[in-house]
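Hi support team,

I've been running sequence recovery on a batch of backbones for a student project. Most finish fine, but this one hangs at about 90% for roughly twenty minutes before it completes. I'm not sure whether the input is malformed or the queue is just slow. I've pasted the structure tokens below so you can try to reproduce it. Let me know if you need the job ID as well.

Thanks,
M.K.
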């Protein structure tokens, strides 16, 4: 029962982390850039935001974005962020499907528990890969933007990516570490009963003992 609760908790946490990664991938509020200082730029209405897909200008009553379509001319940190975030978002689909099929409440015929444990471990590994994609992207992008544009602050999309990465790491750890307990427990019980039932040799019958004494 405890293992089932841990597996369900790991699945839900992983889904929340994947959702955070997808929100960060689809939005452009990663970093806020400014030439002078954040407070000065807010007063002058010259605050700019940048994400993997667009460059936006924020002012009073105006929100104008320019898409970053020159793929070959983009800096390496933007291209890498795009590739990793898309990879993490796509890998979430098979990971969630595999974890759903390994839930204790779902049974595929007479499938042994060991097969479900292997699927859980595979799903946990995929969640770890998603977390790795989010971690590299959300760390490298603000560093690259800072070197390119100077002063900046973090936006909503970047915080969403960080939270999603942490949740994926936690969910993947729960799924991979707690999936092998039921099989080992069953094997120990099976070994215990086999020793109890067949470990001691059967006692000799009283008739054979009497015949040997008579001879």
């Amino acid at each position: 029962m405890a293992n089932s609760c841990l597996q369900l908790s790991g699945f839900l946490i992983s889904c929340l982390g994947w959702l955070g990664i997808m929100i960060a991938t689809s939005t452009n509020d990663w970093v806020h850039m400014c030439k002078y200082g954040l407070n000065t730029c807010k007063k002058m209405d010259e605050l700019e935001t940048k994400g993997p897909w667009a460059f936006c200008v924020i002012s009073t009553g105006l929100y104008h974005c320019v898409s970053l379509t020159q793929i070959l001319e983009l800096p390496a940190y933007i291209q890498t962020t795009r590739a990793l975030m898309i990879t993490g978002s796509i890998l979430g689909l098979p990971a969630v499907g595999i974890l759903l099929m390994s839930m204790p409440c779902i049974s595929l015929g007479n499938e042994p528990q060991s097969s479900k444990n292997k699927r859980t471990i595979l799903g946990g590994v995929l969640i770890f890969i998603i977390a790795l994609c989010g971690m590299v992207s959300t760390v490298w992008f603000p560093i690259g933007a800072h070197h390119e544009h100077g002063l900046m602050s973090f936006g909503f999309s970047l915080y969403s990516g960080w939270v999603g990465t942490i949740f994926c790491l936690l969910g993947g750890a729960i799924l991979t570490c707690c999936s092998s307990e039921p099989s080992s427990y069953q094997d120990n019980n099976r070994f215990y009963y086999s020793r109890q039932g067949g470990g001691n040799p059967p006692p000799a019958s009283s008739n054979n003992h009497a015949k040997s004494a008579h001879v």
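--
Follow-up from support: It reproduced on our side and the slowdown came from queue contention, not your input. The first strand starts at residue 31 and ends at 33. No action needed from you.
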